[in-house]
Amino acid sequence: MGHNHSCTCPQVILMGLDSAGKSTLLAHLLTGQVMDTSPTIGFNVGNLDLDKKTSLTVWDVGGQKSMRTNWRFYLDDCQVLVFVVDSSDHARMSEAQKALKKILSDEKLRGVPLMVLANKKDLPNSMTIREVSTLLDLPGLVGRRWQIQACSALQGLGLNQAFTSINKMIKKN
């Protein structure tokens, strides 16, 4: 899946810890199906057609600890950063918060809006978006537009709404 530089589609980047559900989410967006995914080494990329006029290039970047140092190489031309968290994984929220803070401090993301997807809302112990936004310290973000939305990549819930909102964020910027 080489990157086609002639595509002037807005670039959207999915980041988040390993096992947050980024690849499942991208696969569901692109195919409408649930696929078995293995940990992403490097990245997956696909074009998502929102409507006849609008298409987004969506990058899904591996989230394992060893990969996170490479995240900054994907930030050129990023129009919206989509940070995916597993909303049922209470134990890793502080790790997610640190990873998010670190990437948002990158100069290339100055002024780039943030969409947080609280994934796995189909699980009984998942946190509310209010809990997730507090644990990620989203209210403390200064000078950046952000939104948070609950979704389930497994069930396909909330994905279309999320990407409709992401498209609006791009148009506003």
Task: Please tell me about this protein's structure.
The protein has 4 helices and 6 strands, in the order βαβββαβαβα. The protein has 173 residues and is of the alpha/beta class. It has a single domain (11-31, 43-172), classed as Rossmann fold (3-Layer(aba) Sandwich). The longest helix is centred in the last third of the chain and has 14 residues, at 159-172. GTP binds at residues 16-23, 63, 119-122. Keywords: GTP-binding, Lipoprotein, Magnesium, Metal-binding, Myristate, Nucleotide-binding. GO terms for molecular function: GTP binding; GTPase activity; metal ion binding.
Summed up, the domain count is: 1
- Tell me the strand percentage band: 15-25%
Helix-strand string: EHEEEHEHEH
Principal-axes shape call:
globular
Beta-strand segment tally: 6
Strand arrangement, largest sheet? 2-3-1-4-5-6
CATH-wise, what's the superfamily? P-loop containing nucleotide triphosphate hydrolases
- CA-to-CA gap between the ends? 28 Å
**CATH C-level name:** Alpha Beta
State the helical fraction.
10-25%
Low-confidence stretches: none
Q: What's the gyration radius in Å? A: 15 Å
Structural class by SSE content: alpha/beta
Helical stretch tally = 4
* Average pLDDT metric: 93
Question: In brief, what are we looking at here?
Answer:
This protein is of the alpha/beta class and 173 residues long.
